[in-house]
Amino acid sequence: MKKILLNVVLVMVMLCGVMVLNHTVQASEWDKGNVQTVDDGSFVFKAYISNDGTKSWIYNVKVRREKYASTLRFPSAIGNAKVTKIGHKEKKDSDICYNVFGGYVEWYHDFDGYEASLVNIKEVVIPDSVESITKYCFAGLRSLTTVNLPKKLKKLDAMVFINSRGIKEITVPKKLKDISVRAFDGCKGIENIKVNKKNKAYKSADGMLLSKNGRTLYLVPAAKKTVSIPGTVKKIAESAFCQSQAKKIYIPKSVTDIGDNALSCKAEYVELSRKNPVFAMDGECIYNKKSKALAAVVNADKNIAVSSNVKIIPGGVSVIGECAKYLEIPASVTKLETPYWHKIAESMDAVIKFRSAKPPVIITDIPSWEYAYFPMDSQIVVPKAGEEAYRNWFKETESEEMLKNLKTY
């Protein structure tokens, strides 16, 4: 028995040693003390070389102001080390982000890293040896119209291209199997997404990005004005319409799953097949017939009266159109999910009217964060008979500041 235990301990020690060794190898893949520079006249490329000398990572590009070029062509190798990675040095768990040119990027405050030296760059040519492009890499290339995604690229991360409004078409290469829907934020000119026929993860249908089997809609190109979701689609993935400027959307009976914020965009008209077995449309609301959860609101007139068929307003509800100036919540709604059920009416001067004298239950995994519970600047209107109950509701959720916005009718 002791011998067996000893063997088990030895095996565990060996496994731990292998894990530590692997971690060490991964952590030290790049020799950051070995910086190589390539100057092609218009651009200066700085790169790290891998410890084994076979790969290089271009982490910075300097644009020569006196020699502006319209094409940014990355070298395929730095010396004998082929280029496999492009992008600024990443900082984990940090909001401080930079593009490959060293420009500061803070996308949520509309800083895209743009500077005057980037204005002439209309084309980016990336060698097919590149397997990794870091977040925010080409942010701020506002004049960009043409880019090739390299053949060996496996993942396209969030915010790689921000505000490259001139890009009209994207071709997904064979090995790319993970595409962030936020990779092309602000790329309002994209009309068509093509996919290499040998790609095992994705396919294209009417310019949209779908799963290979056609059952999941992942991304709608921004410039497409009328979107008819293919009849093969069963699921509209999270934020699939996040870049869409569509005016009209048609949802077929095949769609049985709508992800968080899946339909959120500025469309003015949405049509849902009446034969859809899972979802129904009542007024401005699309809801799940079985769970009674609100899936989307269509807010062309900036006023929303939630359907009395709805019992739950989840945090991931899609807002199609502008945020409501007036939101009426019926007595049928017994649960509100945060964050953020109230994004339906996030206008500074919005009015939210509750029809029930009994406040709904707040469902949240962010305790004591009042900003997740309510829209802090909106007026809350409740039945006179429920005033005390709503006052206690605000106190219980540590949102007493909302009391100053409480009105009765």
Describe this structure in words.
The longest helix is centred in the N-terminal third of the chain and has 26 residues, at 2-27. The chain contains three helices and 36 strands. The termini are far apart. β26 (285-288) and β27 (294-299) form a beta hairpin. The chain is 10% helix and 33% strand. It is elongated.
Low-pLDDT residue intervals, each spanning 5 or more residues: 1-26
Number of strands: 36
Give the second-level CATH assignment, the architecture of the largest domain.
Answer: Alpha-Beta Horseshoe
Indicate the CATH topology of the largest domain: Leucine-rich repeat, LRR (right-handed beta-alpha superhelix)
- Cα(first) to Cα(last) distance is 78 Å
Largest beta-sheet details:
6 strands, mixed
What is the averaged pLDDT score? 89
Could you estimate the helical fraction of the residues in percent? Answer: under 10%
Q: Helical region count? A: 3
CATH class placement of the largest domain: Alpha Beta
Which of globular, elongated, flat, extended, rod-shaped describes the shape?
elongated
CATH homologous superfamily identity of the largest domain? Ribonuclease Inhibitor
Supply Rg: 26 Å
Structural class comes to mainly beta
Residue share in β-strands: 25-35%
For the record, the count of structural domains works out to: 3
